[in-house]
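In the current project phase, the collection of sequences with tokenised folds has grown. One resulting record follows, to show the layout:
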Amino acid sequence: MHIRLEVIVSGRVQLVMYRDFAQRKARGLKLVGEVQNLRDGTVRVTAEGPRASLERYLERLHHGPLLARVDNVRHEWKETEGGFSNFVIRYD
């Protein structure tokens, strides 16, 4: 059964390859969704897939890439909405 994970990551997570990290880890776990920088300096991640894979992914988001400093990870579990065919970085 697939579910949706919505995450907001704060700390030093912009300009440190965090979005690329999030995309690579999601694709490695065969998750679909998106990652995006927000204007307040946080990063938003939306991912869908099997709960076990999403739990592993959430653990990785707590660490981030080498240059990042993750201070807080807020997450919510929701019902799958669909609409994603792969995992992408949003630049808007």
Q: What stands out?
A: The first strand starts at residue 2 and ends at 12. Residues 31 and 80 are 12 Å apart (CA to CA).
